[in-house]
Amino acid sequence: MYWVVLIASGVLEAVWATALSASKGFRRPWPVVVFAVSMTLSVVGLAWAMRGIPVGTAYAVWVGVGAVLTVLVAVLRGEERLGVAKALLLVALIGCVAGLKVVS
What we know:
Layout: H1 2-22, H2 29-49, H3 55-76, H4 84-103
Helix pairs in contact: 1-2, 1-3, 3-4
Subcellular location: Cell membrane
Family: Belongs to the drug/metabolite transporter (DMT) superfamily. Small multidrug resistance (SMR) (TC 2.A.7.1) family.
Keywords: Cell membrane, Membrane, Transmembrane, Transmembrane helix, Transport
């Protein structure tokens, strides 16, 4: 269950990062609300997952999942380009996250 919560918290990290960008410097209220709620839930989930997963592993997975999903959302929204090198690096990052699960 710790891993499920950790992955969900990583997804919420992508939500808050995207909402932060959409807030345009905290000038748009709804993205600010989404940012605050998703960030709070993300960090609470990370903290809970750390009860059963070592801090280094949990943090690396949380950041990795959040980073990959944030890039993918930006690509889908047309805000960022996905070249071959970037795609390969994102796949490698996912592989590292999966590897941490395997060795944990």
